[in-house]
Automatic annotation (TrEMBL):
SUPFAM superfamilies: Nucleotide-diphospho-sugar transferases
UniProt xrefs under CDD domains: GT_2_like_c
Pfam family, one: Glycos_transf_2
Residues annotated as domain Glycosyltransferase 2-like: 4-189
Name the UniProt record assigns to this protein: Glycosyltransferase family 2 protein
InterPro entries tied to this protein: Glyco_trans_2-like, Nucleotide-diphossugar_trans
Domain of life: Bacteria
Gene3D superfamilies, A to Z: Spore Coat Polysaccharide Biosynthesis Protein SpsA, Chain A
Length: 396
């Protein structure tokens, strides 16, 4: 078995379905197996995925075990020479996995690899390349120096902004959204640390790979990451879990440092967590009192694809009252679609919804990279499922 793919799901069955569809194309000809570990979802994810993907091994957990523990359950059952940890709110380019495996085969010192992740607006996700959050690197990040000097090898090390996006380069931290691991390396350094419920386990594993004598790589092959469709980043739970993960990592790997170093860093983490929580609660309070209500512009939709797709989406748009335009096109003929996007006023939210029968996942990402506007986000429509998927909602 060449590859085992593991996806941990929590209440995002439609995103998982899209992810599995992209994997069906990307794994063609590769000896592989796919596990979906469901963390006790309430949206019938298990039944939905089981009915539609007979070749996927679904593990139905009785409780929400967290990201690390759920992945470890599947890793222990898997048989691949390589293991790919993949977020449910992603889709992969058709040749991305094949290219990553070819690189790993040629570089036996590589313990793991990540890829070029795109945001839904076509921009490159900074967390595609990261440095270890050493005390000083964490200090520069938390106090804004990383954002102020992103290209600096000192201040910008957290996102390693000085590295090339177009070439394979060694990095320190591989994102857990797409983390391809050599089985031999996992056997040597151990599985994910289950003390991390969610967030931080990818940093910890990357650090242990480096300590074990392996290299971590960034490879310029594309995926889309919706970024957290399975989490609620405005919740108290998110704030607690995220900053708790930072403290667990710091205590585990840097707790031996001088008291004069550890106290300021730990204090900064607590302050950041408190500020984030206060901002969140303040926003909710003001919104509930009607003090900050502001009606935003209604989003528009541009549907691009074949006749079957555009006809179906016209009906959906009429039924849902969507402001929509339609454009015939495929991955060999999409210039008109880009011209139409450029006619829209900036700051008016626009979803460009691609026909997954007419466009490859790789070509969708390439087109969005050309557009690359914060007000324009990628969406998809499948003639098979008849579902519109955007970063912000599911439309059926």
């Amino acid at each position: 078995m060449k590859l085992s793919v593991i996806i941990v799901n929590y209440n995002v069955k439609y995103y998982v379905e899209q992810c599995l569809d992209s994997l069906g194309r990307a794994l063609d000809g590769i000896e592989s197996e796919i596990f979906v570990v469901d963390n006790h979802s309430k949206d019938d994810s298990v039944g939905y995925i089981t009915r539609r993907f007979k070749n996927v091994a679904v593990i139905d957990c009785n409780h929400n075990l967290g990201f690390a523990r759920a992945n470890n359950i599947a890793i222990r059952q898997s048989a691949g020479e390589y293991v790919l940890l993949l977020n449910p709110d992603t889709f992969v380019g058709e040749d991305t996995i094949r290219n990553v495996l070819a690189f790993m085969d040629l570089h036996p010192a590589a313990g793991g690899a990540g890829v070029r992740m795109y945001n839904p607006d076509g921009t490159r996700a900074l967390e595609s390349r990261r440095g270890l959050p050493t005390p000083m690197t964490s200090f520069y990040k938390m106090f804004g120096l990383c954002a102020r000097f992103p290209q600096s090898r000192t201040f910008g090390r957290y996102y390693m902004g000085y590295l090339s996006w177009e070439e394979p380069v060694c990095i320190e931290v591989i994102s857990g959204a797409f983390c391809l691991l050599r089985r031999e390396a996992l056997d040597k350094v151990g599985l994910l640390d289950e003390d991390f419920f969610m967030y931080g386990e990818d940093i910890d594993l990357s650090y242990r790979l480096l300590q074990g004598g392996y290299e971590n790589w960034y490879l310029p092959y594309p995926i889309l990451h919706y970024k957290g469709e399975s989490t609620h980043k405005t919740s108290f739970r998110y704030v607690h879990v995220f900053y708790q993960a930072m403290l667990i990592f710091f205590r585990k790997h840097y707790g031996h440092l001088s008291f004069c170093i550890t106290v300021p860093i730990k204090g900064a983490v607590y302050v950041k967590a408190l500020v984030a929580l206060v901002k969140m609660l303040s926003y909710r309070l003001r919104k509930s009192l009607g003090l900050i209500y502001k009606r935003g512009d209604d989003p528009r939709y541009l549907f691009v694809g074949g006749k079957q797709m555009t006809d179906r989406c016209r009906l959906v748009a009429r039924r849902k009252g969507l402001s929509a335009d339609f454009c015939s096109g495929d991955e060999n003929n999409y210039v008109l679609a880009i011209d139409m996007v450029n006619r829209y006023l900036e700051k008016t939210p626009l979803y460009v919804v691609f026909d997954t029968d007419a466009f490859s996942y790789k070509s969708m990402l390439g087109i969005m990279a050309q557009v690359s506007r914060p007000d324009v986000k990628l969406g998809t429509f499948s003639n098979k499922t008849k579902i519109i998927i955007t970063p912000d909602e599911i439309i059926k």
